UniProtKB/TrEMBL annotation:
The keyword Phosphoprotein does not apply. NCBIfam families: rmlD. Catalyzes the reduction of dTDP-6-deoxy-L-lyxo-4-hexulose to yield dTDP-L-rhamnose. It is an enzyme of class 1 (oxidoreductase). Belongs to the dTDP-4-dehydrorhamnose reductase family. This is dTDP-4-dehydrorhamnose reductase. One of its GO terms (molecular function) is dTDP-4-dehydrorhamnose reductase activity. It comes from Streptantibioticus ferralitis.
């Protein structure tokens, strides 16, 4: 239960990257609350264009801007780092400058990939003040975006890092991300699936993250700046998560087979340890997100009625 008043009453929000899993959820949940909201997808706003960002913020005159836009193709970023940086680093800088000029605040969504996540880190969650040491191009560009936003708008920027994000598809009939992929295989395919069991993290349900962003944006700006970690409570591995998805949709978890990361070669190194600490919420009177298993159970509760999409969008990273 929050101990700090949070209200979106009278605020206009600008949701950038509104076509993605998180952007759609933030937009939808603001609409349910009757909040004055402008939602811009990639076709409506290219955040790498500084003038376009300035015109969008100045023209719509929001009090809160939430940036859900990102280059999330982790492997492709290794060979296209400059292109990823334009979206993940230059984009937040452009939005922060536009917010500074108009008097708006910025909520910048970031990622666990700003940390290295080496096996030697096991056991201690990364706190909000832990020194970032990204090992991938994706992580480097997202960290650059964090720093740019905080430098341009230090007194009105909140960086919210998340991880292992999954949500609802645009059609509303399926689940996205890794969870969606596992649900699709469990429901629509009769085969086993190999999943790594040496990468540890926290699945995060997009509606939970959207609610937290909205609550943060409704707090007094002088209370809600700096870095926050918004991931599901507890921790698990991709393998254990996959087995739980199979179980919840009524499939045999034994169809999920355990493998090591060395058996799944990818261009970008995946963190072995992506567990984030949530101490930052206490200073603003908000609780951490609920346990990942509770959220997953709710997310898949009606799986039989909205069976996983046989052709889901690509999984997203944050």
């Amino acid at each position: 239960m929050s101990t700090t008043p949070s209200s979106t009453a009278g605020l206009r929000w600008l949701v950038v990257g509104a076509g993605g899993t998180l952007g759609r959820e933030v937009t939808a949940r603001l609409a349910v609350q009757g909040v004055d909201t402008v939602a811009l997808g990639r076709a409506e706003l290219d955040i790498t264009d500084r003038r376009a960002a300035e015109e969008a913020v100045a023209g719509h005159r929001p009090q809160v801007v939430v940036n859900c836009a990102a280059w999330t193709a982790v492997d492709d970023a290794e060979t296209h780092e400059a292109a990823a940086a334009r979206i993940n680093a230059d984009g937040p800088r452009n939005l922060a400058r536009a917010c500074a000029a108009s008097g708006a605040r910025l909520l910048q969504v970031s990622t666990d990939y700003v940390f290295g996540g080496a096996a030697t880190d096991f056991g201690t969650p990364y706190g909000e003040l832990a020194p970032p040491v990204p090992y991938t191009a994706y992580g480097r560009t997202k960290l650059a975006g964090e720093r740019a936003a905080l430098a341009e708008l230090p007194h009105a920027t909140a960086v919210v890092r998340t991880a292992w994000l999954y949500g609802r598809a645009a059609t509303g009939t399926a689940t996205t991300g890794f969870v969606g992929t596992m649900a699709r295989i469990a429901v629509h395919e009769d085969r086993t699936v190999d999943v790594v069991d040496d990468q540890h993290g926290q699945p995060t349900w997009a509606p939970d993250l959207a609610d937290r962003l909205i609550a943060l944006g409704g707090l007094p700006v002088d209370r809600a700046t700096g870095v926050f970690h918004a991931t599901g409570g507890g921790r698990t591995t991709w393998y254990a998560l996959a087995r739980e998805v199979f179980h919840l949709v009524g499939a045999d978890p034994e169809r999920v087979r355990r493998i090591g990361s060395d058996q799944l070669v990818r261009a970008a190194r995946r963190p072995s340890w992506s567990v984030l600490g949530h101490d930052g919420w206490a200073r603003v009177g908000l609780p951490p997100l609920r346990h990942w298993r509770t959220a997953l159970t709710e997310a898949l509760a009606d799986a039989s009625g909205r069976a996983a999409d046989p052709n889901p969008p690509a999984a997203e990273a944050r």
